[in-house]
Fold this protein.
Amino acid sequence: MFTRRLKEELKHIKSQNLYRERKILQKKIVNFSSNDYLGLSTDLHTKEKLCEQIDKLSLGSGASQLVSGYHKIQHELEKELADLKDTKKCIVVGSGYLANTGMLEALIKNEDTVLSDELNHASIIDGLRITKAEKIIYRHCDIEDLEKKIKNRKNKGQIFIVTDGVFSMEGDIAPLDKIYQISKKYDAVLIIDDAHATGIIGNGKGSLFHYGLKPDDMIIQMGTLSKAIGSYGGFICASDIVIDYLINKMRTLIFTTALSPVQNFISLSNLKIMKKEKFRRDYVLDKAKYIVDHLQKIGLNIHFKGTPIIPLIVGDESVALEIRDFLLENNIFVQAIRPPTVPKGTSRLRITVSYNQSEENIEKLISLLKIYYSA
Ligand SMILES: *Cc1c(COP(=O)(O)O)cnc(C)c1O
């Protein structure tokens, strides 16, 4: 019964062109689908330093942060992240997913209201699912809709506004200048998910800094170490009170083992490189604009949003898969992103630019897409 039920469901998924498999990319294939924007996941300097220091590092943290898993290297990493985000304090947790789900569950009470952009990341959606507060979804980056829905709220408690800084599947930057003003007008807590903004916009500091805004006690910046930083782990930067509260209340910090000191060492080393080597993000943004300019010339509906994420929306799942397979035959990988990751009818090729991609391979991607669309 049970196995048959699963089989039936998988068959249904396949019939809709929504079946997914994990793929190990061969070495010769150029990856245009990684979030390793700055190429730091393979950085030689960090590898060398890790080899030098490996004798001094525990391979595993050994326990939860609150028991004995909090090592010196994590403390240093947190100080470096707090410095990046101009906040008093920071906590590092297992992943960005754990940061969002745990933080939202800990901070938002039943009597509160939370407003969330309709295209926010799944980890925000899952975090909000756990809370019993009033949850309101506003239209993507729509300030008027946001304010209207704040005015129409039912609960009388604290207001929270949650938004991605850079939207992972669209590549656009949230209008934080306006959202910030709304948050001040209604005394709302502003939670920004800078998973894709950190290391890229605002001189690498993130979306708040992109708009020249300053953090304060009512702003929480979260992010991940697994994208532009090229490592693994999640973090939350905020005021000391917020961080002290989360250390005491956040279940995804308390009831799980701390990250390995080896992983935190990699994060810290890569973070320092990210801060110093501005040319990496300059390259990535230049090339993203270059790709868009060339694909617009052949009439594709594609836009540069100021980030390395370039969605080529084709709508139909089977078309997205066809283009993916055509590129792959030519040793270029661009993953087809389909529902439920993106809304129905908006299946797309999500092209991402990385410092690891040579100019030659960028030209190759452009000419292959030209060939596909002229055939
Ligand atoms: C990737 C991502 C996360 C989750 O981060 P992980 O460290 O991969 O768990 C959270 N929010 C957004 C917007 C993301 O793109």
